[in-house]
Amino acid sequence: MKKNVLVGMLIILINLNSGFGQTWLDKAGRRADTIVCYGSDEVHRSFIPPPREFLLKGGNEKNKTADIIVNYIGFNTAAQEAFEYAVSIWETMIVSSVPIHMEANWTNMGTGGVLGNCRAGAYYLGLYVGGINPNAYYPVALAEKMLGRELTGADEPDLIANFNSIANWYKGTDGATSDTQHDLVSVVLHEITHGLGFIGTMDVDMQDMGSYGFGNGRTIIFDHFLELLPDQRLTDTLIYNNPSIQLGSAMTGGNLFFPGAVQMKENNNSRAKLYSPATFDPGSSVYHLDEAQYSPPNADSVHALMTPFISKGEAIHDPGTVTLGMMADWGWIHTFIDHKPLVDREDLSTPVLVEAEITSDTDFYSDSTYLVYSYDEFETDDTLVLGPAGKEDQFEVIIPVDISDRTISYYISTQDDYGRIYTHPSGGPDFYHQFYVGPDTVKPEIEHFPIEFMLYNNDSLKIKAAVTDNLAIDSVYVEYMLNDIAQNPLRMNHDSLDDYS
């Protein structure tokens, strides 16, 4: 039954629904530490050219799969051209339908030993953006990719980076870096990677006490992969207390690894080794690849971009499959489940149809795409296969509901070709959708802020309200009086979503 709703001007309403705005998302209140790229005085003349994908696409604007828009502050022409070249490489290596806004500052950082740093502008909880881990925070550029829409806009950059104006830079794009210079293209690629998610909250204090997190029991997605021994994650509080000396030792013992499913499959089933020196450095520890294993002249130097130090003469224009695999693991290769949750209904005159659109940056198993539902909030459950709905990427199934006055909980699940399980909502069955079949006893909720006064010579007054209901809204009216005399109710216009005026 659709409902007619009356909005009384003098009623104060308490129960509010914020809807799908930014307040709907859990945005981390504290920034993660800025990660630094150090310039080494060692000389390693080497050049790793850009990835084959970039070279085949020729840097053509039409061939890019992401759009990184940079606000340059203080850059000269040569530095900006090198920066744009690095940006164009990343624009062919990641996929996002949402523009990535970046602020880049060319600034005196006080010492030539620090080449640059970068951080994400904000972080959003995986539960609300479709992350595979509902309790981890995701950097905003990745959160926007997974959600498929802007969260912050151009005025609040997704990436914020600084580059040292007094460093001795090579600003060419051909990798011909001299023995006395550091390659700017390499450092820009390196710092963008940090802003895209090669970052976290791990820390060790002066008493060797290790800790992590934003103070609310949650941390950034990168941190959830960290381990020493296989399958013993640093964020598993049954193994490592947070904070603890044991956790500090794990971050400074030289044997810290990233074991993501994609990274391992693409790199001979080997865990990526991370930089974890005996003395913790908040600017470089944990959130770089191991210097000894991946830097020139070692055999694994094709992956050297994300080591903590860049040597003179070293030019690395390819992120490498280790870094790309890690990025895929924390979300840059993603599977999308688009589903409009079912709402309450009064009767069973029509089938309870569940519909979803499922797409992926890789392959997913359509025959392993399920609806899992329960009549007792997942104390017990049943599973149905979602079948093709007649259109590409469209799937559907009918939930069997044969009696009224019943609450049904459910989530949708699918698996990609790396074995990763995605659910809608994220984190099923711990999180799930729910709807009720039976008599409608739920009142609509109205959000309205009364206007206390108006100028006497105005001849009209605009009333606004946000109105939601568990079923649907038919009409919304304003009842009002002039000089204590009741007037005919006015029907409000339906502006958009839950908004009326």
Tell me the layout of helices and strands:
Layout lengths: L2 E6 L26 E14 L3 H6 L10 E6 L3 H14 L9 E8 L6 E7 L2 E3 H4 L7 E3 H8 L11 E6 L4 E2 L11 E2 H12 L7 E2 L5 E2 L33 H6 L5 E3 L2 H6 L5 E3 L16 H4 L14 E8 L4 H12 L2 E4 L13 E9 L9 E5 L7 E4 L1 E2 L5 E6 L6 E10 L5 E4 L8 E5 L7 E3 L17 E4 L4 E7 L1 E2 L2 E2 L3 E2 L2 E3 L2 E2 L1
Parallel strand pairs: 1-27, 2-15, 3-4, 4-8, 9-10
Antiparallel strand pairs: 2-5, 5-8, 6-7, 11-12, 13-14, 16-17, 17-21, 18-19, 18-22, 20-21, 22-23, 22-24, 25-26, 26-32, 27-30, 28-29, 31-32
What key attributes describe this structure?
32 strands, 6-stranded mixed sheet, 14% helix, alpha+beta, 501 residues, globular
Brief description of this entry?
By secondary structure, this protein is α+β, with helices and mostly antiparallel strands.
